[in-house]
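Schema walk-through. Below, the input block comes first and the output block second. Nothing else is stored per chain. Lengths vary across the set, and this one has 285 residues.
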Amino acid sequence: MQGVQLQNKFSFSNPNISISGLSEKKLCIEVGHFFTCFTISDLSGKEIVDFVYFESTLPVDLNEVSFLLNHEKLNEVTFSDVILVHNRLEMALVPSSIYKPELSSIILETIHGDLTPLEIMVDDVHQWELHNVYGWKPELLSLISSKFPQVRNIQFSTAGLRSLFKTLSFEKEQWMKVYFYKNAFHLLVLRDNQLQLSQTFNFETPQDIIYNILNVVDRLKLDLASISVDVSGLLDANSETWSEFNKFFVTVSLEECPYIENSSKSEEHLPSHYYTPFLITPRCV
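--- output ---
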């Protein structure tokens, strides 16, 4: 397709389950700033059949999403459920106690500007007494709904917070989860099981990453010696960034996914923590 900048960076196919072997199938399409991907699973999201991840050198827009929608795996079967995952900057978490629906667009325009018209969406993150306000370009929504009229929407932070709520550990007074993507990372911070921060940061260098994270630690008055840090996504364990994490934090680990390790026949042989951010939504929605 003319003008498309996407490259298929990695994928996963489960050799133990075929698409035809599932009576009902769920499709999750995730759109980030420089990536888009899809996951095919059973309705529970526990049995992953296929995952395909694309990166772009330019911000993902209509051409890239249209290219993804024409993937052969999305044209082979009928899906019982389709989820569109928003993983972009245009979002804001608002305490439910002060949230007013009529102010949703004003909230996004105040934080992110009003140069691009957006169709406003809102997730009720009741586990944390929050509302997640976010926006899609209307033409992108139209493109996807024209192929999948049954599509539902969710913002990545909503799925991440729901997943986090299920795995809360009262043994950890301070907890940080870092999800890495191309040129961006998403940070979730908890203290005493209370959410302190859920925010996406852009970066160009490893120094940008460490600067932003240490700035959050300082601003929230966290303790480098006692905070537990879980890292997942597109981060090489041999990278400078990973070395810096281990230099500053005492307890830091990569969030592995045994399901991928045990099932994958992927040619890329990537470590399973590369996949974990993208498998959150199928299991939480």
